[in-house]
Design goal:
The complex is a heterodimer of chains A (291) and B (332). Chain A has helices spanning 3-34, 41-59, 62-83, 94-115, 141-163, 165-175, 177-182, 187-209, 219-234, 239-259, 264-278, and strands at residues 131-133, 138-140. By secondary structure, chain A is an all-alpha fold. Chain A is built from eleven helices and two strands; from the N terminus they run ααααββααααααα. In chain A, strand 1 (131-133) and strand 2 (138-140) form a beta hairpin. Helix content of chain A is 72%, strand content 2%. Chain B has 332 residues and is mainly alpha-helical. Chain B has a two-stranded antiparallel ribbon. In chain B, a hairpin with a 2-residue loop joins strand 1 and strand 2 (166-169). In chain B, helix 3 packs antiparallel against helix 9, helix 13 (256-269) crosses helix 14 and helix 13 runs parallel beside helix 16 (316-325). The chains are: A mainly alpha (291), B mainly alpha (332).
Amino acid sequence: MDLSLIIMQLLSGIALGAVLVITALGLTIVFGMLGVVNFAHGALFMIGAYAGLYLASLTGSFWWGLLLAPILIGAFGMVIEFVLIRRLYGRSIDDPLLLTFGLSYILVEGVRIVFGSDGIPFPTPPQLIGVLDLGVGIFPRYRLFVIVLVAVVLLALWLTLEKTRIGLIVRAGARDPTIMQVLGVDIGRVWLAIFGLGVGLAALGGVLAGPMRSVNPEMGSLVLAEAFVVTVIGGLGSIVGAVVAGLMVGVSISLVALFAPEMATIVMFALMAVVLLIRPQGLFGVRGRTA
Amino acid sequence: MTRPSSGEVLAKPATSGLDRILDHRVLLSIAVLAVLPWLLPSKALAVNVLIYGVVVMGYNLLFGYTGLLSFGQAAFFGAGAYFTGIAIGRYGVPWFVAVPIAVLLSTCLAALIGIVSTRTRGIYFSMVTLALAQLVYYVALQAASFTGGENGLRGFTVDRVNLFGLQVNFLDPVNKYYVLMAFAGLAMWVQSRILNSPFGAVIEAIRENEQRARACGYDVERSKLVVFMLSGAISSLGGCMLALHLSIVPLDILHYQTSGMIVMMVLLGGARSFFGPFVGAASFLILEDVISLWTPHWQIFVGAIFVLFVLFLPKGIWGTLLDVLGIGKARR
């Protein structure tokens, strides 16, 4: 086994992890702010991939799909929050979870009605076809693009949360929504925006994953489990945790696939079990809320 | 009107006549199940209600009575079915030995998953149980030489069962129904005993207020693990019944969609009620049957109905009915 192969596999893992990070981030932000675990997150990831594919074929350009699908699906997420989830605040924490689970059935079956049950190939954009020589080995351009784009999105998200007034309101709202309301902040609108952002991130993950996986109505269920594993390892509600755990999971899947392919899907669950036995609240989680 | 505390559950206060009926909830449930094949449009549907009823009943011990929303019950349902099938098909074990072995092994699996998952709380618990159940799914998928992988487990047949010298033809749906009903009756009796025991009061105390239960001196962690194992054991019995019924085990049984279906059934029927799981299983399966007659996309309707239940009828059909009649506040 030569070194360049391992390095390339490592990079593949980071690309895989990058998609996981974006997806798990949406899940963890919504939980951190709203206390809602969105069980429809995987279904919305899948819808994002379909929306990206549809918009790309409509406009003739992958880039429009990449830009518009997250915005469109994010807006759809806001409708979901406004019409359904809003009614459940203050009720048992299980209720939003159960509701979004029912919603995922509707979304998956809805996609089957519109696009059929069979998988659809998602073409790689022409500018990103082919491989790039990195000196130590060759690497697909598209995967490199995914890594860079996710890094940019993460940076933008971090800057917004840490350096802007909106970020301040969001962070304060996560700590104490009641005080924010007293201070005259319409917390309902903040929650609406956060849910939209979370769903938009799921859709972005879906579009990015499109050319790497096949697009089919069932693709969301595996992603949901993966996103859960990442958030559980990282610590529910922790953004740093989602990033670290996402990359950790991506890299371990990739490296294990190199040595024992049949163990690749299993390794992340084993990783989660080990982390939970040592730290029930996850690597960056706060004790008390969940464990 | 105050809600009776868990202690009064044990004291069995004499209340209305309707309430007293619930003292015989096992016998009543068995009586209803005994006539079920003649109430439903097909015998096959009745067998499925029986099987899923037992699975959901085991799950209700965890979700309804202890308040632990697990999303991984399919692991035990599937384990029961796979262990039964493997014992009969691969090792030639007679069915009445295979079933207890399968339940025992599934309980061990529940102990393993329970040790990891009961360390977490709330929503975390739901996510961890789902993830660990998916792990079981992938293990079954990979261990194809044992489980048949994607094709499911085949190659074991149960067409004639020997009931202590009496040969019962398993190809006759009515005979099969009543043999499987014996399992369901046993499961109900065990469940009723658990709920009426001091342990049953402890798990309800944990549901109502975990910190308080801990302060009262109960070992909350151990109780959660034990109830997780008991719940897994009862649900795995449903899996054994499925294996005997179908003579195959589809891989889908382990998928998280199955776990979700179990959650849907318990909510449709009514969590926290003794007979609710059977009502839930029956209504889900009838719904699926009826809607799939006129559209292949029945899941969209089932999903919508489920969402409406969460929003407007969180106590489910049976739970709401009991509430309206005002009976069984203390023990359901």
